[in-house]
């Protein structure tokens, strides 16, 4: 079973794959962009793919919704992964030897308070968090620090100089598990729909009212521009269902009220572990 991920071993996409495909041998197809991940699933080079779709701090990755549509992919699962950034170096390096810090732009942004406190470091962007950790190990670099996951430090034998350097401790990323062809499973508790409506007054509200009338909990709604139709938008919604029959009822009611309607996936609702954790500090100042 080959699984496409963005990034290399030790990346957060790698962690999400481990989390979802528990106790399975993972044959990872490590790619350097989300578009290559989507194409790999579409061409069936990879059976599954892992793709980040939103972060609790940075928000939604809109281009990834477009990739799902462009390559006609189906959502078969989701993973919520707490993001804990570690500052790691070569095992023989120390604070005094580090002159540069490398990481993915999003990780650098989420750790900017740490970087401000260590303003003597030169900052460099990399393609993903784990790639710099691998580079430090491969090239025996003792002047570069990486911001990456604990898994990266373990895989590449690096030393963590300071753990959990993210600005906000409650930082989580949601990932979709994607497949080319997938029918609805026998049992599911969540569904992702994509639809569009006319620009008539109340068109969107009419659809949302039908969702409410069936006592369906809408976890998310996201508007995404339709590329070939300026100022036209599609809406992506994630809905929690307490029984499968509700989906059939909902589709019957909203189809006449939409100009397009598509099921992107039916899957089991995952739980974000950071939501229920009360003991987490909320910021870097609290944990230093």
Overall description:
This is prephenate dehydratase. InterPro entries: ACT-like_dom_sf (IPR045865), ACT_dom (IPR002912), Chor_mutase/pphenate_deHydtase (IPR008242), Preph_deHydtase (IPR001086). A hairpin with a 7-residue loop joins strand 13 (217-225) and strand 14 (233-240). This protein starts with a strand and ends with a helix. It is of the alpha/beta class and 288 residues long. Residues 278-288 have low confidence and may be disordered. The protein has 10 helices and 15 strands. The strands form 3 sheets. Strands 1, 2, 3, 4, 5 and 11 form a 6-stranded mixed β-sheet that branches. It is elongated and about 65 Å long. It folds into 3 domains: 2-83 and 171-179, D-Maltodextrin-Binding Protein, domain 2, CATH 3.40.190.10; 86-160, 3-Layer(aba) Sandwich (D-Maltodextrin-Binding Protein, domain 2), CATH 3.40.190.10; 190-267, ACT domain (Alpha-Beta Plaits, 2-Layer Sandwich), CATH 3.30.70.260. It has helices at 12-20, 34-42, 62-70, 105-110, 112-117, 129-139, 150-156, 203-213, 245-254, 284-287, and strands at 2-6, 27-31, 48-55, 59-60, 74-82, 86-89, 100-103, 122-125, 144-148, 159-162, 172-179, 190-196, 217-225, 233-240, 260-267.
């Amino acid at each position: 079973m080959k699984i496409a991920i963005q990034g290399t071993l030790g990346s957060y996409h790698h962690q999400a794959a481990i989390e979802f495909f528990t106790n399975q041998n993972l044959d990872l197809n490590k790619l350097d962009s989300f578009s290559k991940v989507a194409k790999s699933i579409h061409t069936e080079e990879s059976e599954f793919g892992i793709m980040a779709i939103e972060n609790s701090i940075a928000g939604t990755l809109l281009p990834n919704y477009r990739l799902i549509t462009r390559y006609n992919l189906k959502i078969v699962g989701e993973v919520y992964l707490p993001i804990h950034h570690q500052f790691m170096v070569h095992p023989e390096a120390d604070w005094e030897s580090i002159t540069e810090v490398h990481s993915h732009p999003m990780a650098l942004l989420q750790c900017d308070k740490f970087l401000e406190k260590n303003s003597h470091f030169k900052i460099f962007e990399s393609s993903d968090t784990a790639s710099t950790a691998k580079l430090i190990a491969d090239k025996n670099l003792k002047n570069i620090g990486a911001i990456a996951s604990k898994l990266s430090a373990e895989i590449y034998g690096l030393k963590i100089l300071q753990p959990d350097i993210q600005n906000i401790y409650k930082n989580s990323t949601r990932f979709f598990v994607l497949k080319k062809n997938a029918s609805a499973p026998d049992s599911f508790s969540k569904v992702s729909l994509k639809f569009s409506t006319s620009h008539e007054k109340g068109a969107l509200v009419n659809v949302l009212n039908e969702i409410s009338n069936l006592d369906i909990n809408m976890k998310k709604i996201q508007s995404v521009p339709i590329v070939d139709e300026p100022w036209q938008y599609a809406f992506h919604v994630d809905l929690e269902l307490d029984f499968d029959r509700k989906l059939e009822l909902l589709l019957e009611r909203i189809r006449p009220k939409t100009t397009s309607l598509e099921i992107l996936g039916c899957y089991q609702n995952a739980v974000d572990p950071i939501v229920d954790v009360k003991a987490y500090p909320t910021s870097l100042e609290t944990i230093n």
